[in-house]
Amino acid sequence: MQKTPVVTIIGSINMDLITTCSRIPEQGETIIGERFETAPGGKGANQAIAAARLGADVNFIGRTGEDYIGRELFAYLEESRIAGLYVKTVPGVSTGTASILLTNDDNRIIVAAGANAYVTPDYIDQHLDILKQSDVVLMAFEIPPETIIHTAQKCREYELPLIINPAPALNMPEELWEMADYITPNEKEAAQLFTAAEEKIQQKLITTLGAKGAQWREGDLIKSHPGFNSRVQDTTGAGDTFNGAFAMMTAKGKSIEEAVAFANAAASISVEKMGAQTGMPAYEEVQKKMMNVR
Predict the structure, then answer these.
(1) Parallel, antiparallel, or unpaired: how do β-strands 57-65 and 6-10 relate?
(2) Gene3D superfamilies this protein is in (predicted)?
């Protein structure tokens, strides 16, 4: 019987504050929105739930504030099949939020870190035994840069495969990219961070292309896997679904091509519902979608 893959995700926990509108307002302008709702989010929590729903044993390390939002988000994480939930509150600090404007099948997002800023190197060191259990470690950029670098160093020390999702795009030391096994930017992040990157870094990139799928390099070849057709409702969380799925498949020892194909299918399902986490699929849903296009 195949061992269940263990994916450790270190990252943010946010409440998404979602406003749907017909267009983005101009500077100084007020417009009437069409709908408002809240939904659990944060790139770390999104990726953890995506990987867990797809069948991985997920360890998630993060922090919330000591407020009603934090309590609500923690309860939701408890219900989300996450095998190991390592989340502590930060007294006197708000839980992270993401203000999202949805318009014309697109989104614009403003993140306020709150308690996510307290996912520190010392906090990671409190969970090294958990880190060591991992088949794969995944991090995005909604936690402090020093924590990302510190965790990458620990992954190298313990010989743990590391996936870096550089979102939102931040200029980081070359050392970080060298310690990653895979780097998963979208098109804009890739253009901002890696246009002039050394060849050894280019070889680590798995670049997501939205509806067009994803591409990567093998030697001198640029390889790609196309996207899947979707009836788009909300693109928020599609990249996180891709990353959670890619991490799960990598932890299972699958090839890049197999992992990317599966992650593309998972992401294409996630955009068909509102909210980052509510649309994330189960393993069987992804398999069915992949079978239907063969």
Answers:
(1) parallel
(2) 3.40.1190.20
With respect to residue 157, please indicate whether it lies within any of the assigned structural domains.
yes
Q: Could you tell me the pTM of the whole model?
A: 0.91
Residue 80 located in a structural domain: yes
In the annotation, is 220 catalytic? no
| Residue from 57, 67, 135, 240 carrying the catalytic annotation | 240
- Give the CATH number of the domain where residue 153 resides: 3.40.1190.20
| 212 in a known ligand binding site | yes
Q: Is position 70 annotated in a ligand binding site?
A: no
Percent of the chain residues topping a pLDDT of 90 = 79
Helix (H), strand (E) at residue 77? helix 68-78
Q: Is 129 exposed, middle or buried (0-12, 13-18, 19+ CB in 10 A)?
A: exposed
pLDDT for res 3: 82
What 3-state DSSP class applies to 212? helix
Cα distance between residue 21 and residue 5, in whole Å: 40
Give the dihedral sign, CA 167/169/173/177.
positive
